[in-house]
Each structure stands twice: as C-alpha cells, then as structure tokens.
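Sample intake sheet
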Amino acid sequence: MKRKAPLTPVSFDTSAKRPPTTERPVRSRARSLAMDAHIEPHQHPWSQFTYCASGLMQVTVTQGERQTTFIVPPSRAVWIPPHVQHNVVVLETAELRTVDIAPSVLPANWTECRVLVVSRLLRELVHALEGSEPGPRDTALMALTADEVTRSDTQALGVPMPHPEHGDKRLRALCEAVLRDPAEKGQLREWVADVGASERTMARLFRDELGTSYQQWRTQAVLAHALPQLARGVPIAQVAAAAGYASDSAFSAMFKHSMGKAPSHFQAKTLSK
C-alpha cells in the first residue's frame, strides 16, 4: 500500500455551492484526478458518498481511536458520516464522484463508515444529479439517490489500523509489516517475535483495538494489497503469489468470496465498466 511516487496535494473543494441545503439535500459533483493526487485530511458537517466512475482510490478515515483504510474500485463506494476526518489518495487516474448528503436524509444510526456496493441504478442517478438544476426532476433524483444509498448492500472492505498516537505501537508495527509484504509470513505466531510480544497478547490487541481477529484483518489487508496490482494489469498468478497464496485458484476463491466477483473483474480492462 505504500506509494513509490510523491503525492500531489489537491485542494479540498470549498465552493459555496457544494454544501447540501434544505432545498437541495443531495448534491453530486464530478472531479478528474491524476494518479497520486492527494486530498488532505478534512471533515465537514454533512455525510458523503464517494466512489470512482473509473480508476482506483484509497480513503483513510479516523474515528475515535481507530484509523481505517479503504481501497475502493469503481463498483464500491465509501460512505462517511458527518464530522469524520478523512483523506483520499488516487491510486489510479480516477473520475471521482462525490455525493454530499444532508444528515437529515439518511438514517440516524449510520454513525460508522461503511463500504457500499454501487448498483447500476445508483451510478446512473449520481451521474444524472451532476448537471441537474432545481426543479421537480432534481427533487425526484435526490429522493431516489438517497433511497438507493440506504438500500445498497454493504461489504467488509476496510483495513483498520491502530491510532498513530494512542494505539499500541507493537500492533501498529505488525500491521504495517503485513501491509508491506503479506506474503512474508502467514500466521500470527510467525510475526509476533518481530514486535516483542506473545501471540496471545497480539491476538487480544487485534480484538480490543481493531475489533477483529488477525485472520479476518489479514484478509482485508490482502485485498487492499491486491486491488491496486489488479488495477495495473498484474497477472492474477503474480498477485496471488505476492499475497502469500500457493495457488492462484486458492487466491481467486478467497477473493470472490470476499468481493463477490472474481479478481479478473477488477483488472485494468474492466475497471471502468
């Protein structure tokens, strides 16, 4: 997940026409961003639904004592509640779609970030909203978009990380090592010696700080490691080996179980479909 090229800072859109209002509670805008573009950490008082019509992005959010990084292909989106700090890094040149939604529109219990599966209908609604003008059609589009967002399937597609300041440093060191090279070691017991803690202690830290088991967390880390490679056209067998899988069939089975589609669906030639 580390980038070799330097990131290019991109300003956060502070246009006066951006925030959702009582009259227009759902607003959509498109933005083309080059690879390695970086939108600095920010937050806003409305919720946000973000995805790429094409390309690939990395969204990192901070909620409480936990950071979570999402690798988001075009068929998925990140929903971010109000007042949650987040930043975006473009992994592959992207057509970014940002839908800003007034807090009153979506369910009050949507307090945690989530990854949503973007249906074809939702993609078309977001696109239609981009150039929509106030009026009955715009009102109908906003209502349909909000309804389709609430009906979207969710997916566990995020890599939680300990807070950089308050989290356990041993846990963060282990997580960063796995993200750099998930193929180096497979089991938790193989990693613990490097961070100076017992397997039992590290297993407890995964549960207490990240709310998951090591194996569940590692699956998310492998997906985060694999998606950018697939987007760049790396052969599936090579991606599987880099993730620590002895065969591409075993990797493909895990990937399809987690993502709902085969790895080939997320390769460069299909990322914009």
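Comment: Residues 46 and 103 are 6 Å apart (CA to CA). The first strand starts at residue 8 and ends at 10.
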